[in-house]
Design a protein that fits this description.
The protein is of the alpha/beta class. The chain has one domain: 3-Layer(aba) Sandwich (Rossmann fold), CATH 3.40.50.300. It is built from eight helices and ten strands. α1 crosses α8 and α5 crosses α6.
C-alpha cells in the first residue's frame, strides 16, 4: 500500500461484470478529474491463445483436465505483483493488452489471441486494476497487500454463468456447449483461487437475481437489474454512513451490521455514493504528501 501512489484493485470472475464496474469508476475519475493508469488482468496471462491450448492439452495428458486461466500457474502473478509494488514505490510501471477478438485486433494491430507490446503507464494519480487476481495470495505472491482499495464483484454463481454464456456467445462467437465446457473445467480453480480473494476485499458488490435462474445453461435472457437485488458487504463498516446510504437509496435496508441490500438497478448510484469519498480520500492523502 502506498499513500503517495495509490492502487485500486477490482477482482471478479469471467462474466462477473467487472467491465461494467470499470465504466462506473471511469465516470467517477472523469468527474473528479482523477488521472488513472489502467491494468487488465488478462494482460498478465502467461500464454497466448495458441500456447494456452497447447498447455491445456499437455495438462490433460498428465491427468489434469481442469487447467484454466483461473489457475495461478496460467498467469504471471509474480510480474503483476512487481508492477503493483513498483507503482506503489515510484508511480511508474508497464502493462500490455490481451486481444480477445477481431474488433480489438483492428484497434491494436495484432491478431486475436495474442498480446500487444509492453508499454509504460502514462502519468497518473492512481493505478486501477480489473481482472481475476487482484487480491491473489499464494505461497509465492501477495498481491492483495499492495492495493489501497480492494473491490469484489461477485454475482451469485448461476447469474455469473448466465452472463458469461451470453457474453461469450454474443461477442466472442462461442457456442453454448463450448462455454459450458469452459465453466465446468474452471470450477476447481474457481474454488481454489478465485473465491478466497473475496474474503480479502474491502467491499463486495453481489448481484442476486429474484427470478428463476435454476438452469443457467438454458436461460434465454440475462436477469435485468430490475429483476435483481444488490448486496454490498463492507469488511470494516466503521466510518460508513449507513443512515445516509439508506436515505439516499429507496427500498434499501441493512441485512447485517456490515451489509446493505438495495434494488439491483441502484448499482450505479450505490457505487458513486460509496466509492467517490474513498477515492477522494486516497487522492487527498496523495496530494498532502506531494
Amino acid at each position: 500500500m502506498s499513500a503517495r501512489h495509490p492502487i485500486i484493485s477490482i477482482t471478479g470472475s469471467s462474466g462477473a461484470g467487472t467491465t461494467s464496474v470499470k465504466r462506473i469508476f471511469e465516470m467517477i475519475f472523469r468527474r473528479e478529474k482523477v488521472e488513472a493508469a489502467f491494468i487488465e488482468g488478462d494482460a498478465f496471462h502467461r500464454y497466448d491463445r495458441a500456447a494456452m491450448a497447447a498447455k491445456v492439452a499437455e495438462e490433460e495428458r498428465l491427468g489434469n483436465p481442469n487447467f484454466t486461466h483461473f489457475h495461478v500457474d496460467a498467469n504471471e502473478l509474480e510480474r503483476l505483483e512487481q508492477v503493483f509494488a513498483g507503482y506503489g514505490a515510484t508511480g511508474t510501471g508497464q502493462t500490455r493488452a490481451y486481444i480477445h477478438d477481431a474488433g480489438e485486433a483492428e484497434v491494436h494491430g495484432v491478431p486475436p489471441g495474442s498480446f500487444t507490446a509492453w508499454t509504460d503507464f502514462p502519468p497518473s494519480d492512481l493505478l486501477f486494476y480489473e481482472g481475476l487476481h487482484g487480491c491473489a495470495v499464494t505461497d509465492t505472491v501477495d498481491i492483495a497487500r499492495h492495493a489501497d482499495l480492494k473491490i469484489g464483484v461477485v454475482p451469485v454463481i448461476n447469474l455469473e454463468w448466465i452472463q458469461k454464456i451470453h457474453r461469450d456467445r454474443a461477442t466472442r462467437g462461442y457456442s453454448a456447449e463450448a462455454v459450458m465446457d469452459v465453466i465446468l473445467r474452471r470450477m476447481p480453480d474457481y474454488v481454489r483461487y478465485i473465491t478466497p480473494q473475496f474474503s480479502l476485499t474491502d467491499i463486495n458488490f453481489q448481484r442476486v437475481p429474484i427470478v428463476d435462474t435454476s438452469n443457467p445453461f438454458i436461460a434465454r435472457w440475462i436477469p435485468t437489474p430490475d429483476e435483481s437485488m444488490l448486496v454490498i458487504r463492507f469488511a470494516n463498516p466503521r466510518g460508513i454512513d449507513f443512515p445516509y446510504l439508506l436515505s439516499m437509496v429507496p427500498q434499501s435496508f441493512m441485512s447485517r451490521p456490515n451489509s446493505i441490500v438495495m434494488p439491483g438497478n441502484k448499482l450505479d448510484i450505490a457505487m458513486q455514493l460509496i466509492l467517490t469519498p474513498l477515492i477522494l480520500q486516497l487522492i487527498e492523502k496523495q496530494r498532502r504528501l506531494s
